[in-house]
Design goal:
The chain is an alpha+beta fold. 47% of the residues lie in helices and 21% in strands. Keywords: Signal, TPR repeat.
Length: 230
């Protein structure tokens, strides 16, 4: 029943769509980047007088226009509207209520085209900015799904497997700052330094891992072996 309802709603939406002629002013005012979440953005752009979105890895998501400001996105299953907040005057992509077309939730704030999420900084290898962004997320919500220790660890090892040692070290360092009481993050950082050939830094971080967890066998073996060579 739910699938039938969705299909029926989509049919109604598409039947109500219009060929909208977007003015240059509207295009200039609404094009750009909107914050979808702490780690995702929506990019709005126009091509041949049609409005498209870039979102979740898709470069050209089609929209169904109702007027210059309102449109439907099947991938989101949402009706959206370009609006300005009455108090702050900031621009948003608002979510239009399913029950009241005049009711809009100011959902996605418009930001500068140069705005990046921490993940985007990470992808561009701007590690200091990525860390600052993740620390800001942690301050807001320390349990955020965007701060999973295992995810950073996995990314670091993917880079290690590609022999991108410095990049892997930078990612593991982010994990160290986010999870300073985890022996595993120091263990991984030590492993990266060891593969790079820096045994001194490997020892420093294995030693820290061992201090946090005396049962860390790999750290214990390395620390004991390193001391015998001094």
């Amino acid at each position: 029943m739910k699938i039938k309802a969705i299909l029926l709603f989509a049919l109604i939406i598409f039947s109500c769509s219009k060929n909208v002629n977007y003015t240059p002013e509207i295009i200039k005012e609404t094009s750009g980047r909107y914050v979808y979440s702490q780690e995702e953005v929506i990019d709005v752009y126009y091509d041949n007088n049609k409005l498209y979105l870039k979102w979740k890895g898709a470069d050209k998501i089609e929209t169904v226009a109702f007027d210059e400001h309102t449109f439907f996105v099947a991938e989101m299953y949402k009706k959206l509207r370009f609006v300005k907040h009455p108090q702050t005057k900031e621009a948003y992509l608002g979510i239009v209520s399913e029950n009241d077309d005049n009711k809009v939730d100011y959902a996605y704030l418009k930001v500068a085209d140069t705005f990046k999420t921490p993940r985007m900084y990470l992808k561009d290898k701007e590690y200091d900015k990525a860390l600052a962004g993740y620390l800001a997320i942690k301050q807001q919500d320390s349990t955020s799904v965007f701060l999973e220790e295992a995810s950073f660890n996995r990314l670091g090892y993917n880079l290690l497997n590609e022999k991108a040692f410095n990049d892997a070290i930078s990612v593991f360092k982010i994990n160290v700052v986010l999870y300073p009481n985890s022996d595993n993050v120091y263990d991984s950082l030590a492993d990266a330094y060891l593969r790079k050939g820096d045994s001194t830094q490997a020892y420093t971080n294995y030693k820290k891992a061992l201090e946090l967890n005396t049962g860390n066998r790999r750290a214990k073996r390395f620390v004991e072996s390193y001391k015998t060579k001094l």
